[in-house]
Amino acid sequence: MEEAQNVTAKPSQQNPGTTPGPATGSSAASVPDQETKDTRNTGPGRLLIAVYAVFAISATARAGYQILTKFSEAPVAYLLSAFAAVVYLVATVSLAKSGRTWFKVSVIAVLVELVGVLVVGALSVFDSVSFPHETVWSLFGRGYAFIPLLLPILGLIWLYRRRPASVGTVVEP
């Protein structure tokens, strides 16, 4: 009997600092599991991920076709389309993954997208000679119903609302 009590008094290998057996409530409930609390890829977040995935596929297909068939006509525009495809792909994957690092990657990808849409959109309006052919981000995404302009704004709002709790913050269940 005494041997059994010694076994239960040792810290658990799975969660150091706690003892096996029924939880009394305070220590188990006050330490949230980051993976289960990350809700970026649930609910409306899934729709956001799906839209990013569609844009990743369409931008990749468009850029691939343009680069393979008529790269010499507008190399800058087609390389920008390829860059946009990479940004959409990174955003899709990072939004779908859980964890703090993936959250940071998501924020960076969506910010790069927003800056890209604004810069390329403005340049294509004010310096149309440099953009003889449209890119995904030309004219602020006019060829895609301005979704490339709205998508990073919605993405940043979603990420802000679903940002992970700061380290040391106790989240009550």
Structure in words:
The protein is mainly α and 173 residues long. The protein is built from 7 helices and no strands. It has helices spanning 2-9, 26-30, 34-37, 44-70, 75-96, 100-126, 147-161. Residues 6-12 and 17-36 have low confidence and may be disordered.
Topology, pairings included?
Elements: H1 2-9, H2 26-30, H3 34-37, H4 44-70, H5 75-96, H6 100-126, H7 147-161
Helix pairs in contact: 4-5, 4-7, 5-6, 6-7
In short:
This protein is mainly alpha-helical and about 170 residues long. Helix content is about 60%, strand content about 0%.
Features of the shown structure:
173 residues; mainly alpha; 7 helices; 0% strand
The biggest sheet amounts to:
none
Helix content class: 55-70%
Distance from N terminus to C terminus (CA atoms, Å) equals 36 Å
Q: Taking all residues together, what is the mean pLDDT?
A: 80
User: What is the N-to-C succession of helices and strands?
Assistant: HHHHHHH
Detail the poorly predicted runs. Answer: 6-12, 17-36
Q: How many individual β-strands?
A: 0
Structural class: mainly alpha
Backbone CA Rg? 24 Å
**Treating each run of at least 4 consecutive H or I residues as one helix, how many helices?**
7
Q: Give the overall silhouette.
A: elongated
